[in-house]
Specification:
By secondary structure, this protein is α+β, with helices and mostly antiparallel strands. The protein has two domains: 92 residues; 107 residues, Head domain of nucleotide exchange factor GrpE (Nucleotide Exchange Factor Grpe, Chain A, domain 2). 63% of the residues lie in helices and 15% in strands. It contains four helices and six strands; from the N terminus they run ααααββββββ. It is rod-shaped and about 145 Å long.
Length: 207
């Protein structure tokens, strides 16, 4: 006996329901798609979190390297400045060493000049030693020229304002003929060597 077409369709639907647990094919497909979509969303979220974490880590590393670079650059600037100062100091010391090389000898010559000056003063207005006086004066001039050629020279103090940096006051005299603190007598010449004081002048100051 032939089964009607309608019956075949009904039986087919029932078989499908049995295989799918009694659920229609459309419901099963929707559920599968929902699971797949959720799975993809979870994966995307995980990737997003991982990307964020790696980005933050990379940013920290970049910041650390940037700070390290700044510190190294600052160190370079300091070292470079120290090196430049060292070069200047070395050059200055070298120049000073050459410039003031004869200072010791000049200091030893100054007392000789003092003796000659005293001898010259003692022979003044004495006809008997006139020739000797001329000879002493000539020697003094030669020595002064030699000292001047290397940068050493006497400086004048008489009638100058007293300066403790280059004058040594041995006495003070109360007077109305000179302004206060004026040098009225020079007992011993002062000397400078280039811009350096070799010896202060010994003076008498008005008070």
């Amino acid at each position: 006996m032939e089964v009607p077409e309608t019956q075949k369709i009904i039986e087919s639907d029932e078989n499908v329901k049995k295989k799918s647990g009694g659920k229609a094919p459309q419901q099963e497909t929707k559920k599968t798609l929902t699971k797949k979509t959720k799975g993809k969303a979870d994966k995307l979220e995980a990737i997003k979190k991982l990307y964020k974490k790696e980005t933050e880590k990379l940013k920290k590393e970049i910041d650390a390297k940037d700070n390290e670079s700044k510190e190294n650059y600052d160190k370079f600037l300091r070292l470079n400045a120290e090196f430049e100062n060292f070069k200047k100091r070395t050059q200055r010391e070298k120049t000073d060493s050459f410039k003031y090389a004869g200072e010791k000898i000049i200091r030893e010559m100054i007392p000789v000049m003092d003796d000659l000056e005293r001898a010259l003063q003692a022979t003044k207005n004495n006809d008997k030693v006139d020739e000797l006086s001329k000879g002493v004066d000539m020697i003094m001039k030669k020595i002064k020229n030699i000292l001047g050629s290397v940068g050493a020279k006497q400086f004048d103090s008489l009638n100058q304002v007293f300066d403790p940096n280059k004058h040594e006051a041995v006495s003070k005299i109360v007077t109305t003929e000179h302004e206060h603190n004026t040098i009225i007598e020079e007992l011993r010449k002062g000397y400078i060597f280039h811009d350096r004081l070799l010896r202060p002048a010994m003076v008498v100051v008005a008070e």
